[in-house]
Amino acid sequence: MLDHTHAPDAQSWVSCANAADTDFPIQNLPFGRFRRAGSHDAVRVGVAIGDQVLDLHALGQLDPQVAVLLGSMAQGELNGFMAQGRAARIALRHALFEGLSAQPSGTASLWRARAESLLVPQDEAEMALPCRIGDYTDFYTGIHHATTVGKLFRPDNPLLPNYKWVPIGYHGRSSSIGVSGQAFPRPWGQVKGEGDAPVFAPSRRLDYELELGFFVGPPNAPGMPLDMAQAEASLFGATLLNDWSARDVQAWEYQPLGPFLAKNFSTTISPWIVTMEALAPFRAPFVRDAADPQPLPYLDSATNRERGAIAIGLEVWIQTHQMRAQGQSAVRVSASSFADAYWTPAQLLAHHASNGCNLQPGDLMGSGTQSGPAANQGGSLLELSQGGKAPFALENGETRTFLQDGDCVILRGFCESAAARRIGFGDCAGTLLPAMARA
Amino acid sequence: MLDHTHAPDAQSWVSCANAADTDFPIQNLPFGRFRRAGSHDAVRVGVAIGDQVLDLHALGQLDPQVAVLLGSMAQGELNGFMAQGRAARIALRHALFEGLSAQPSGTASLWRARAESLLVPQDEAEMALPCRIGDYTDFYTGIHHATTVGKLFRPDNPLLPNYKWVPIGYHGRSSSIGVSGQAFPRPWGQVKGEGDAPVFAPSRRLDYELELGFFVGPPNAPGMPLDMAQAEASLFGATLLNDWSARDVQAWEYQPLGPFLAKNFSTTISPWIVTMEALAPFRAPFVRDAADPQPLPYLDSATNRERGAIAIGLEVWIQTHQMRAQGQSAVRVSASSFADAYWTPAQLLAHHASNGCNLQPGDLMGSGTQSGPAANQGGSLLELSQGGKAPFALENGETRTFLQDGDCVILRGFCESAAARRIGFGDCAGTLLPAMARA
């Protein structure tokens, strides 16, 4: 599965991509869509390299061999390429790796000579959603999150009997998914009042959720399931995902059909899709505790047991309004790992298609909140503040139970191992604005 | 609100549109998308008139004045027109009415002279989805359904405390929405087994749900709610909707996040969108029982109280495999009315946007199952068979608790009043195929 594009010592002629702390070394090469900030240019597909964006439209014009591999991406659209699957991704990855490599070659020389037309600094780029997202599904794979939150909603029954058998999921809202940098007003909603009647008011328990998002590549036809091998092959790549949640609205509305307005006002993802190839060195065994039920056969395979999981470190950072006003950087509030997820991405996709539901290129599957086993590893404020009962202190002395207006929440993710070059996801940042006045 | 296009005695030169039992008199004029059956033509937008389809692409080429009103519809796409809103719909409705009218006029003469190029028989047309559906939301406005089903899932707690305050809804799956004529295999899924472990098997409790679907026209910007007047103005029109449901899968998977694989394998809608203008003569008062909570202010308006509801008669018909084999027509199994819905379409949309969630042209809102108050008015088999405990007889002597392979379920809808011409929705038919074999 690993090849020379995963060599930890490989370097790029784009020298900033060789910095130890970059999220985007030549081993990563994630896809996003961008235009020059402030321009009215059409959106283009690009690849992150160091602190630059490689413009695939310009690249296609420069290099006819690569243009063939790009297909419809040259027109600024990623979904067509996503539909092609693994072989097309690998071919393009190899071509990009060669052209960006510090190792001398005709291709690398050609690209390097035209660097000025090919590269756009990321801080001069305005990012768009990386692809057209038809349907968005959110799962619930964080068992520590499900247990902690379950205790708050159902003290005597935290983990329901289906949890260890079914990869629990529900449909989310596509239209309100935005890219890192998204800002949105505090939502209004119905919440429980003092008496029987609810109150319609701005949410007072606004929260984030630390998640990963997995994008679907090749589709399955309606009625046709995906076995575990097909599901693994149909995964395109991953982003960070913040499933903003209004907990007071959720508590009042969610029975019997699940979360709705508590979550569909905004969902933020990071702009870069890290491909399954870039994640390959960080695959890990999927181990089900012997005391737990083993997955049913349609969710099981030898490959999944050997390397179905992915070790992705995850962090939540917050920069409050006060911190910004005082010139202070964001502070980290928690950290966890996707290695703790109860189901693997291939299991989520195989389950999703198991009834014949058709998945399409660009469809997005959220992982659910990723919390670690420790109390300070909660992937949401609901967990960190024990349901809002225990304010916790930020490093600058401010405290939080839930989010305050002006808070910017930044998710970060990265993969590290002794045998591979560190790769990262880039920031997934979103800012809560004050509620809008209502007539 | 009513004008000469609603006159009950208006007739068309398309004489089949004057038949007493047609769903599509000149007062209706619903939009759909079609191509000639068996052709590889691009899909075109059409309007149903009697048993014919008026081809708007051909019409635009014939009549430049109408071409201006059609805009992007001439290219076979309805969403752009949906975004324009009520004034554009009314202008086009008036132009279509004049051109199709039996009243002599230059326009009517011109169209009539070219009838052969403008009209395609519906039985020679293959229908597509009427528009691109970005997001699909399903509500739960059938209080009789919610009460009966609630008793089955929660005998001591059928109607939850939020039901009479919140228009309960959840997000559905867009990719698996198909148009009337859809056939799909019986889905597999996890269902409760004899012991603790579930079983992965074809669903044994496959059901339909009798619903209406409402399409969104003009969008709201992210973060910007719609008040009741704006919500009413943002409705485009309605179809019939069958929310097929695997009850055994649903019972096992639905807690705590709601229905997922139990419903996302297929959803069938009727091909024609009946516009809000065609429904105008059938608007009815929205009356909340004095013993019930009155709607919160954001869900209330004088207009909604006066005419927020719509009186639409609804029916379910079934044609079994045996009936088809013996040349028997479908038999009616139940009837109900959308006038019994607990919330109006404008309330659903105002609630959906109340947190700032952005709705887009072509988004679809299901009404939830529409059952009448009587036991034989259930809009699903779950209700008619008392949760599968009481088989009921079809007219030909067959019995059903849930659907059998080969059953074709046909939803029908129509509006009738003493003061207006009857209009209908056309059939919403779907067929259950046997489960596919699994390795």
Automatic annotation (TrEMBL), chains A, B:
Residues engaged in binding Ca(2+): 138, 209, 211, 243
Cofactor: Mg(2+); Ca(2+)
Name of the protein in question: fumarylacetoacetase
Binding of Mg(2+), residues: 243, 263, 267
Keywords from the named record: Calcium, Hydrolase, Magnesium, Metal-binding, Phenylalanine catabolism, Tyrosine catabolism
Parts of the chain that traverse the membrane: none
Binding site for substrate: 140, 154, 250, 254, 369
Gene Ontology BP, a term: homogentisate catabolic process
Every Fumarylacetoacetase-like C-terminal domain range: 163-412
Domain of life: Bacteria
A GO term for molecular function: fumarylacetoacetase activity
Enzyme Commission code: 3.7.1.2
EC class name: hydrolase
InterPro entries: Fumarylacetoacetase, Fumarylacetoacetase-like_C, Fumarylacetoacetase_C_sf, Fumarylacetoacetase_N, Fumarylacetoacetase_N_sf
Lineage of producing organism: Bacteria, Pseudomonadati, Pseudomonadota, Betaproteobacteria, Burkholderiales
Pathway: Amino-acid degradation; L-phenylalanine degradation; acetoacetate and fumarate from L-phenylalanine: step 6/6
Record-linked Pfam families: FAA_hydrolase (PF01557), FAA_hydrolase_N (PF09298)
